[in-house]
Amino acid sequence: MTLARRLAAALSFVAVAALTACASAAPETRSSPAASVDIPHTPVGERVTWIIDILEREADTTAGEWSRVLHENFLAQVPAEQVAELVNRQLRPAAPFTVTAYQGTETQAVATLAGALGDPFDLSLTIDGASRITGMVFGPVAKPWTPSTSLGEVEQRLAALPGQVSALVLRGDEEALALDPDRSAPLASVFKLYVLLAVSDAVASGDLTWDETLVLRDVDRSLPSGELQDAPTGTEVSVRDAASAMIRISDNTATDLLITRLGRERVEAAVVRSGHSDPASLSPFLSTKELFTLGWGDPAVRAEWAGADEAGRRALLDRIAAAPLAVDGAAVTTAQWQDGFDWFAGARDVAAVHRSLQQTQDAEVLGILSENPGQGLDVGSWPYVAFKGGSSRGVLSGSWFVRDDAAEATVVLLMADEDPQAVAGAMSDFFHLAEDALRLAH
Known about the structure:
442 residues, alpha+beta, Nuclear Transport Factor 2, Chain: A, Beta-lactamase, 2 domains, five-stranded antiparallel beta sheet, four-stranded antiparallel beta sheet, globular
């Protein structure tokens, strides 16, 4: 059996296509150089960059290098020696490479690479919470996307995606597309919009300033995404910089620092103020460390949570918050949202918190929201784009508030499936449909 077929047969985390044999392809003559796109500084983006660096290095890659970054379930099916052989013999001869397209969240991405030999190919990558590779495909470039011609077509195509899908497109206050917008859906990192609103409220009340210094302790560290979890104990970060990292690169540890400083009750008050249709579903409000502990940590802690009333749950969260994280990122491989371990809201709720954030008219808030316009998406002609997306096992979410001098629009897309493979396989279509919705909402 070929390596391509072994990958296709063995991996349970992503849908795998046949691998491209770049070295055996004839040199391709291009009339102009391929255009390059930036790879975002997300955990999966950094892993994509690492792979490209391996592909372009003068020396051959080794099995040892790959064994350190491949998940154990991957290695159980495809040995690191075979991965190194594939990369050295079939891919590296096509270097140098240009990244001509990129789509992704914090943990999964598809990058199109154009090399000096052969046809361009797609690198599809999925990682776990420790940035170890759970799925990797070097395959033919996906067929060109056929843009939707109407929001009705966008709705039909969204409805055809796997799992449960919700969507809402607003032109100002007008509802232009609504697909199950009141369904209580897992948000992944979109929940961080509520934390940002709580920060803004605390600043407005005088209880917090953007320049206040937060100090990283060992008990504050969460799992990626983000960078702050790797900083030395005692690292100082301003509220402004923590909020920026929370939205721009979805930094989990920065988020937890803010929640700790605010107190979860203040975040819960922001949920209520935003107009959430069921604020009790976000109470008690979890930090990311608390979610990782409950969803993938000690089963005894999870059982205690299941049997506790609200007061008992709050006491349990206080214990979790006071201790260092005891969950390895490699354990975060299964979907847990169906058991209630995520943050939940409907598409209308997410649109409402975006509107609440815009209504603060706080220049810091509006600037932070626009620092990352959406993981390399084409947002059309909108000059201002506020974005927050998210992904976790079996969950994919994206939310945009856009405006120009004449109009504004809000686009919210939420997808969840108990099978993470199904969500990973639909990621490209999900973001193409977001682009279509943003274009057609103008």
